[in-house]
From TrEMBL:
GO terms for molecular function: dUTP diphosphatase activity. It comes from Crassaminicella indica. Residues 12-143 form the dUTPase-like domain. The keyword Magnesium applies. HAMAP family: dUTPase_bact. Keywords: Hydrolase, Magnesium, Metal-binding, Nucleotide metabolism. Its EC number is 3.6.1.23. It holds the Pfam family dUTPase. InterPro entries: dUTPase, dUTPase-like, dUTPase_trimeric. The lineage of its organism: Bacteria, Bacillati, Bacillota, Clostridia, Eubacteriales. Its cofactor is Mg(2+). This is Deoxyuridine 5'-triphosphate nucleotidohydrolase.
Amino acid sequence: MYKIKIKANDEKMLPKYETAGSAGMDLRANIEELMVLQPGERALVPTGIYIELPEGLEAQVRARSGLAIKFGIGLVNGVGTIDSDYRGEIKVPLINWGDKPFSIYPKDRIAQLVICKYEKIIWQLVKELDETKRGSGGFGHTGI
Ligand SMILES: O=c1ccn([C@H]2C[C@H](O)[C@@H](COP(=O)(O)OP(=O)(O)OP(=O)(O)O)O2)c(=O)[nH]1
Ligand SMILES: [Mg+2]
């Protein structure tokens, strides 16, 4: 298990696994006052945490499905990527896709962080790629 350096003003803000098998650790809103997201509105919500990942690990910011299904709350950027050399505050670009105003209270769990391994590659520029049965078929070409 990796031990990852983290900075936070309050230990309660440290993301943690809610169950033994959770892949994600919930991120909390580091705000002083209630924030309201109107339908269609987006906001970059601070989490108060700063991390130092070794090269080869990234952190993914992902939506919480409960907020998505109940209130239409998602991430404007789909999945956020926290680079290993990023030392700034982790922030969550939330959007209210729902039809009602959504209230965020201080320390609410607004998203989750998943730590993943990634590979670095170098490109080998070629004229032809290996043939496959799929070829360029995609976007539903096998049917629905
Ligand atoms: O949901 C997110 C996405 C990104 N970041 C931070 C960490 C990441 O390392 C940095 C840059 O993110 P990204 O590469 O996605 O954004 P960019 O628009 O390409 O910015 P940059 O030019 O700084 O790389 O912003 C967050 O805090 N939350
Ligand atoms: Mg970038």
